[in-house]
Amino acid sequence: MSGMDITEIRNHYSGYVRRKWLLIGFSVILILLLSAFAVSLGSFKLSYSEILMIIASSFASEPTTIEEYVIMTNRLPRIIFAMMAGFGLAICGTVMQAVLRNPLASPFTLGIASAAGLGAAIAFILGAGIGTGMYLVIGNAFLFTLIASGLVFGLASIRGITPGSVIMAGIAISYLFSAMTSFVQYFSAAENLQMVVFWMLGSLDKANWEIITATGIILLITCPYLFWKAIDLNVMGAGDECAKSMGVNVKRVRLSCLGLTSLITAGIICFTGTIGFIGLVAPHITRMMVGGDHRFLLPAAGIVGAVLLVAADAAARNILPGQVLPVGIMTAFFGVPFFLYLFIRRGSGDW
Amino acid sequence: MLGLVGPNGSGKTTLIKCIDHILKPQGSILLGDRNISQMDTSEIAELIGYVPQNSPPMPSFTVFDVVLMGRRSCMGWCVSDEDITTVAGVLKKLNIDGLAMHNFNELSGGQRQKILIARSLAQNPSVLLLDEPTSSLDLRHQLEAMDYIKSLVHSTGITVVVSLHDLNLAARYCDTLAMMKGGAIAAAGPPNQLITRENIMDVYGVEARLLENDGGAPFVIPIKASDAVERMN
Phi and psi of A156, rounded to 5°? Predict the structure, then answer.
């Protein structure tokens, strides 16, 4: 062990923190450039200056020309929603992995995917649920997601909300809801079945300004709390007992964080379908880049999630001309190679 | 400096967790004249440091990050200069400053144990609870860690409660020992009065011979497990 004096250790640490800020700054620039590029992609070829003009003029008047329509009601909301959904899901994944101390935890650990799937299937196939029109599916997915999380928390709290009990309850509920979905699907007509399957693959087709407002409100309410709890999330990594001895109210933090992540996830995937892979992989990618300190990890993971989803969506819209592939498929195609690259390159210090 | 000794399952760890209010005891635990069950968790965190036997892996955390966790109850969201100085000072004192920027998960069991000690010291506690702090340390690091804890007791007046398996280490470093058996303290007193053949027979069910160490502390040489005593587990 080489000796260092205190100033030297301090310099090392502040350098380490500065590198994290740089990486976060860099990823913010990346997401901005990427979004600008994504807006310009599509069958309507528009230059950056034309797009800027359209966006500027839209503050004054409703879209009239087809170009204005394409940008303002299709591409721009879609990309903004992709950013928000990627950001939210990645943050949820990060928080889940921290409070459950499990690298495989993601918003879907709590059975959320299968619950949303069941809600959507019931809407598509039986036509039953809350809301009308396109809001029938959204309302159902949202409701069932919250029901599933409620069940998981209820079951888990019988044995105390520990990582083990939450994961076990989540798996049980997840299988139950999948089975119910299969049951409903088994008796459905072929065209309805196709709609359910397509919904589950995930897409951003429904993005519009109302959805952006709704999701934005959820994120604005919940994320500050999660960021504020960053230090407690760090300390919980040391184990429940140590976290308690360092003054963290483990139960309360775990329950409130899981509750809020369920709300965020429900608020996102009821619009998109199940695109949960981002929530699993973005935290890992980010942790390998900026380390485990959640004060930096949370915002950075959010931005990485946004980058992944915007890139995946841009690819999904443009790889096959005239066809929009399900974005859920593209996120895996994009995320896995990058994840594996970091995974192979980095050593044993991570999970 | 109080040492807790006793066979496996005799309640050493449980007692330590009760003192830190990680487990809620039925009776009351007084710190000075205050009952800890009436204090809130951050207040306990500022007074009592706890070092567990081992730690779950903490992926992607550097040693500095891990020790910084100890500052949780006294720091805000932003890490202050004082926090950094405290952490750096503790790392330096425990002679693990060279590891500061290493990844916690890549270190050996012994190195991790020292880092956990460092983390609790970063809390600046007035009571330090250590659960088997030397269980995965080699000979040299055992002495280093115990010497450091002992010097801390002398220089800062901090109270240390430490559970130890090694009777000889306990006898050498602790001012008072408490022998635990079946969830209760069977006997307590200064090492040279407590470590007797009768007590070792009673608590551990082991026949032993005693020598005297250079410093006057008793030194136990176990001879054989006695057949006469019923096995507890």
Answer: -65, -35
